Amino acid sequence: MGGGAAGRDPAHDLTPDRGGGAACARLQAAITDLGVLHTHGHWLPALKAACALCGLGNGIPSPPLAPATEEQRQAIAAILTRHGFPRAL
After folding, report:
1. Structural domain includes residue 1
2. Mean pLDDT over all residues of the chain?
3. How many domains would you assign to the chain?
4. Residues 21, 28: contact at Cβ < 8 Å?
5. pLDDT digit string (tens) for 18-44?
6. Has residue 34 been placed in a domain?
7. What is the pLDDT of residue 89?
């Protein structure tokens, strides 16, 4: 167990009976929106583009897959930006 007080699971505070229903709904909406980035082309080039936009790797998949197009990268960047992910310079 990690996080909060010794032996206490921080996810415990997200239960609906503790008022965590709204927090859970916000988290689920964010997860669902982030999952959309895989709809911008093939999932692997989309994931590699997302990683590159966050400063991890170069965004180029191995052949025979082509890298995400500029339009796809822009759509992926918009999703990442909505959720506060860092952008590579």
Report:
1. no
2. 83
3. 1
4. no
5. 767 788 888 888 889 888 988 999 999
6. yes
7. 38
Both structure tokens of 24 = 């859970």
| Owning domain of residue 73 | 12-82
89 in any annotated domain: no
Q: Tell me whether residue 87 is in a domain.
A: no
Residue type, 6: A
Compute the distance between CA of residue 82 and CA of residue 37 in angstroms, rounded to an integer. Answer: 12
For 1-89, where are the E strands, in sequence order?
none
- Give the distance between the most distant pair of CA atoms in the chain: 50
Q: What is the pLDDT of residues 53-63, one digit of tens each?
A: 999 999 999 99
The pLDDT of residue 24: 81
What's the token pair of residue 87?
């952008």
Closest CA to 88 of 60, 56, 59: 56
Report yes or no: 76 and 52 within 8 Å, Cβ to Cβ: no
